[in-house]
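**User:** Hello, beginner here. Are you able to go through the protein record under this note? It all follows right here:
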Amino acid sequence: MRVKVRVFARLRELLKNREIEVEMGDGATVKDLLSILVEKYGEELREYLFLKDGSLKDHFVIYINGVSLNEAGGVHGILRNGDIVAILPPISGG
């Protein structure tokens, strides 16, 4: 199956693109997707997304087809062919 990933701000810099497609096996989860991205884009992405214990930093906002990650089953939620996953980094300003 194929999943689209849209990223913003610093994540766009790390992935060198605003949208990518990722090929995944059936039954893959959001956590699997994030692992694939880290494998492809390296340690800097891992350090940006995850805490030392391997858990996703809680200040990221992730949507699956416009539904927040928490409502879509969390990082263990199953993805489907054609899903669009948007990952928004923390936003600050003043």
